[in-house]
Amino acid sequence: MAGAEGGAEPLGRSRAELAWVEALRGDCEPEQHWRHRREFLLRNVAAPPPAPGSAELQRLVSLSMVWANYVFLGCRYPAQVMAKALDMAHGLVVNSAPAHSAATTTHHLVAKKG
């Protein structure tokens, strides 16, 4: 599959697959985040896609969000969750993700306010 960096549609996907994945986009999800999370979902979905509301779909969507939050927002999760999400994202390239430092944590920001 071609990378989604340039905004191109995923190659080799049916209209049904694209409609299925588009229904999973968050209402306020930025286009850049969505392009990469969509690729994550399409790379990891079984055929046929999991049923709406199923535990399998909830797990896939959750792991896609863990990965996107890690890449774009610098969020951290338990080691086992991170390992699974990163394994599922293997080979997915994001050239435009921001750099996050260890000093930019919630505790650090809250401490500065007080």
Automatic annotation (TrEMBL):
Family per record: Belongs to the CARF family.
Native source organism of the sequence: Alligator mississippiensis (American alligator)
Xref: InterPro entries: XTBD
Official protein name in the record: CDKN2A-interacting protein
Pfam family, any one: XTBD
Gene designation per UniProt: CDKN2AIP
Domain XRN2-binding (XTBD): 21-113
